[in-house]
Prior knowledge:
Number of domains of chain A: 2
Largest sheet of chain A: 7 strands, parallel
CATH class of the largest domain in chain A: Alpha Beta
Strand content of chain A: 15-25%
Subcellular location (chains A, B): Cytoplasm
Family (chains A, B): Belongs to the gamma-glutamyl phosphate reductase family.
Number of helices of chain A: 15
Number of strands of chain A: 16
Protein name (chains A, B): Gamma-glutamyl phosphate reductase
Oligomer: homodimer
Amino acid sequence: MTAETVRSMTGDSLAEDMQTLGRQARSAAQALTISSEAQRNQALREAASALRRNSEDILAANRQDMDQARARGTAKAFLDRLELSEARIETMASGLENIAALPDPLGRTLAAWEQPSGLRIERRSVPLGVIGIIYESRPNVTADAGGLCLKSGNAAILRGGSESHHSSGAILDCLQAGLKAAELPDSALQRPATPDREAVGHLLRLNTYIDLIVPRGGRGLIERVSEESRIPVLAHLEGVNHCYLHTAADPAKSTPLVVNAKMRRTGICGAAETLLVDRQVAQTLLPPLLSELRAAGCELRGDEEVQALDSAVIPADEADWATEYLDAILSVRLVDGLEEALAHIARYGSGHTECIVTEEAEAADTFLARVDAAIVMQNTSTQFADGGEFGMGAEIGIATGKLHARGPVGADQLTSYKYLVRSAGATRP
Amino acid sequence: MTAETVRSMTGDSLAEDMQTLGRQARSAAQALTISSEAQRNQALREAASALRRNSEDILAANRQDMDQARARGTAKAFLDRLELSEARIETMASGLENIAALPDPLGRTLAAWEQPSGLRIERRSVPLGVIGIIYESRPNVTADAGGLCLKSGNAAILRGGSESHHSSGAILDCLQAGLKAAELPDSALQRPATPDREAVGHLLRLNTYIDLIVPRGGRGLIERVSEESRIPVLAHLEGVNHCYLHTAADPAKSTPLVVNAKMRRTGICGAAETLLVDRQVAQTLLPPLLSELRAAGCELRGDEEVQALDSAVIPADEADWATEYLDAILSVRLVDGLEEALAHIARYGSGHTECIVTEEAEAADTFLARVDAAIVMQNTSTQFADGGEFGMGAEIGIATGKLHARGPVGADQLTSYKYLVRSAGATRP
């Protein structure tokens, strides 16, 4: 048997395995449609208990992944995301309990009305069906995303990064234990049997069985998924987020707000990456703000005018304006009024979160109306771009597209609806 | 120059033209974002006037299309859809006026709340951006779909069937006259310059400029678009719709309801295609119903039991259960109770509109909850599956997917939303 034949047989058997996963998920989704809220919440709480009960097994599985990753010489940031601890397991467990405590997103009457024809019409929330989640080697996403799918009555196929295969498997075992305890099919939450990277390609073509793909990760992953998928994708793109200090910005608010937006946590998608400052107020606002940022450990890159105001600012080049640093770096540019700020954001923004700092209601209204982003803010730190901070409970991420859901994606956003129509035998004239 | 070179040059220039269309549409969409409700409604009303004023030019353009189509020996049903008349032009014009009279789908506060952190959050409806509409040679869709896109503040690229090129162009001229009269960019509604079929392929790859593709037409068109598109698709699939006569069906309602559901108009996607009858009530309900259907001109195809009840019933084969006849044909099958009806619908239904005829509330609730379709009905003719009948005004069609919008797609469904967040300088702890 040639190597080629072996490879192609492996490919076939993987394709078959993925078909089976899809079929099982579809059938589990049907069971979830008729499950009760109590059952779904019980499954979530039982899964939380199982995570705590099996924490040693989970940590042992994680050590296997960590050893293999270290042996491959993986970068430290990668290892940080991969590593589990008792504390991280507890965060996953309490996360699932928090999801269980959220209001039921299903069976809600979203609207109800009567027509002159005698039709009584109700729009009612229902699950989407089967969701494919594709994410990097962050094993905790298995619990977070799996929990949200279950809460919203969806079956899920969870495909985490290959390097987290053992850890994710141990966590998935706990989720499935929760499902069984609540008498729900454990195929409601599944994953490919092997860490084979080709599984992703197969998953993206299972359009007979999967209703939605949610990729969660860096730009490369999202782009690959959007390009290859035959299934609708709810993309969570990067956040090239701006703070714009308008002429009517309150100096007392500007500095703490921008420092918080940039520096509170630099690695999250809601962090600010570019500061735009109205030329009229630059000389007043910018020097104290830049020195506070630098004191907080932030590298500053700016255009020539900004450099003239502060000689320690490094020159920014064209690429800087389009970069999501996810790091303690801020690009700074002066603009001539609101229109120029809007034009800069339209050109370089990623449609995630944009903020104007101003005390002038009219300028704020214009900014909020005209900036095309999921979240537009006045006098508010962009770091608030988060489902929890919006009061929506847990979230899978911030969707930057405009279809289906935009902004934080929690359990509510993972639902669809149907129309229920009743009458006393109405026929259409 | 070889034929090959000429072809490839044409292809390049078409690709370039489509890029230009996309760029112009994107820029028009930005202008629409800041347009007022009054402007958009004025454009719709002026377009209606232009249609009436230019009806002779439109009819002349339509005669060109009709002559060419006849010369190619096109089928009568196709010609019927292609042909315009004074009455059809008036229907388009008053359709646009009706859309103008609908409530504004934009700038609506969908939800508003305050967080303990001091954030005041509002979810507000906004346009999607640029919509690509792909449809067959029905020139009236140019006005209907264009009008809905404009109402909802979206730019649109309208690509109708090649055979309707002259008619659609004459109608688009009127829409653009309306835009100009309202001081809106006429590139808000555009179409490819030539009837070249390859334009569709290019359109489906313009993901930089187009946010949503709405295909409107038969199965072949929808499947091609779903397969090829690099842009999210809001698909309107066929309606393999069922009426299920439950044991507790009211005989006085059953016959008029099923006759209406099948025969009122057989060519619309809300028409019933299959009748399921509970075995327990078949002998009572079916004979009078079948003879009324036959009297109304309906061909009947059934399983052996149905044939035994009525010797004029033709045998149905497996393909019948999955067929959208769009014609005066009904397939009929007996089932053993609600579960078997649900299983049949899960297997053969297309997720469009499904109806149970019963006086028993529990059976109805089970049916409405468990059938996975955009519209589920009790004691109501499936022919009511229509945006107008739902009180939503005009519609592009009935979406059968679960993402973004499900069921009738009108102006409201062609919107997205954004979050507006205000605070007094809140920073995240």
